[in-house]
Write a structure and sequence with these properties.
two-stranded antiparallel sheet, 473 residues, 10-stranded mixed β-sheet, Thiolase_acyl_enz_int_AS, single chain, Trifunctional enzyme subunit beta, mitochondrial, alpha+beta
């Protein structure tokens, strides 16, 4: 991993009509990536008249590649396991939990409110309300911030937020024409009406509608968008492979050093107990370079090796007011502070949510990039991450697309996703946000930092960013 990130930024006319020049550090798997941040003495972000909202703890079951050990389960089984894991980790009384929110993206129609079904399955009282939210890849981020708002407004003191995704078994529908026939058949009266409907069926009616990770407004897959974005920011195939290898290498190191303490073991019915993520597979640049383009063929640069993979998994965090947490005898992990949601053009800026959200959340919190000790960004594609880093470090992009006078600057890579990311650990759409937050909290403790910045892009051209503050020792 010796090559440098591209210093020049060549922009496609359809996306960014002028070129901008700026530099970005080289990166490697050297010891600087694991450098410990020294403890700092900074102001707290507590605000007068507002309750402090804390993360008491958070867990996740191992994130697995779809089609592996979770393949015979349902989404609520995974979410139930995460909730039970959180109960075991925290010993919080079930009756103390006032509300449960879970995020998900591709819903199982039998359990459309998966939060409720998972809560009942985990043994929570049927008097404990639960609801499900969806906001693409930031669904559990939305679950957490909705929980935050419920607590901050004084409505509740103890809320569980989380998320789940099961890509091993996604709903596959009949075509719309066939569905109309079948629905009409159920209402038909008499043999004549039924035979009339049957006579209208044509062979193509039997073709199934397969789900696709594509934008409804543009009909473009996210991978296709990632390929165009990488081309627009002049990010080479080698750079993307290098970054993906970095993610896998750091994740393997975190596994080997037992840093991923948010994991809880999950005994899969009829199978072995799963104890770790199974997508972490450091390879070599030579092996990665042999893979063909996955989306724009044959010349695209996005491949299976530098993209996040379809993942099954679930996560959950316990949120309280600081006062309630201390009264119950807990030592919280972190404070949740300012957060922001953004949205932009889903065609050409689909994956640039972190670029737009980062300066806004920093300004809201009264911080600068230099104040941030830990960065945890969602890695949808290596090209997406590198494009965001370049956009954040571009005065021209800031001035022409964001209406800002100057760039906010790119994160220092020695603070960035140091325990791996979605490219290696996996990305269950509805569950990744909680992983980002609890990882940020754990890294702050381990590395002696005070502030973390969590950010993610999402389908629809949306994005999210949040400041997490270390809880004092």
């Amino acid at each position: 991993m010796a090559s440098l990130l591209t210093c020049g930024m060549k922009i496609l006319p359809t996306i960014i009509p002028r070129a901008a020049k700026f530099s970005l550090r080289s990166f490697s798997c050297s010891s600087q990536l694991f450098a410990t941040v020294q403890a700092k003495s900074k102001k707290t972000l507590a605000k007068n008249g507002m309750k402090n909202i804390v993360v008491v703890d958070g867990v996740r079951i191992p994130f697995l590649q779809s089609g592996t050990s979770y393949t015979d389960l349902m989404p609520h089984d995974l979410a139930r396991a995460a909730l039970i894991g959180l109960l075991c980790r925290t010993d919080v009384p079930k009756e103390a939990v006032e509300y449960i929110l879970l995020g998900t993206v591709i819903q199982e129609v039998k359990t459309s409110n998966v939060a409720r079904e998972a809560a009942l399955g985990a043994g929570f009282s049927d008097k404990t309300p639960a609801h499900t939210v969806t906001m693409a890849c930031i669904s559990s981020n939305q679950a957490m911030t909705t929980a935050y708002s419920l607590i901050a407004s004084g409505q509740m003191d103890v809320v569980i937020a989380g998320g789940v995704e099961l890509m091993s078994d996604v709903p596959i529908r009949h075509s719309r024409k066939m569905r109309k026939i079948l629905l009409g058949f159920s209402r038909a009266k008499g043999l004549g009406q039924k035979l009339s409907l049957i006579s209208k069926i044509r062979p193509d009616y039997f073709a199934p509608e397969l789900p696709a990770v594509a934008e409804f407004s543009t009909n473009e897959t996210m991978g296709h968008s990632a390929d165009r974005l990488a081309a627009a920011f002049a990010i080479s195939r080698l750079e993307q492979d290098e970054y993906a290898l970095r993610s896998h290498t750091l994740a393997k190191k975190a596994q080997d050093e037992s840093l991923l303490t948010d994991l809880v073991a999950f005994k899969v019915p009829g199978k072995d107990t799963v104890v770790k993520d199974n997508g972490v597979r450091p390879s070599s640049l030579e092996q990665m370079g042999r893979l063909k383009a996955a989306f724009i063929k044959p010349y695209g640069t996005v491949t299976a090796a530098n993209s996040s993979f379809l993942t099954d998994g679930a996560s959950a965090v316990l949120l309280m007011t600081e006062e309630k947490a201390l009264a119950m005898g807990y030592k919280p992990k972190a404070y949740l502070r300012d957060f922001i949601y953004v949205s932009q053009d889903p065609k050409d800026q689909l994956l640039l949510g972190p670029t737009y959200a980062t300066p806004k959340v920093l300004e809201k919190a009264g911080l600068t990039m230099a104040d941030i000790d830990v960065f945890e960004f969602h890695e949808a594609f290596a090209g997406q991450i590198l494009a965001n880093l370049k956009a954040l470090d571009s005065d021209w992009f800031a001035q022409n697309y964001m209406g800002r006078k100057s760039k906010v600057g790119a994160p220092s890579l020695d603070k960035f996703n140091n325990w791996g990311g979605s490219l290696s650990l996996g990305h269950p759409f509805g569950a990744t946000g909680c992983r980002l937050v609890i990882t940020a909290a754990h890294r702050l403790k381990k590395e002696g930092g005070q502030y973390a910045l969590v950010a993610a892009c999402a389908a629809g051209g949306q994005g999210h960013a949040m400041i997490v503050e270390n809880y004092p020792q």
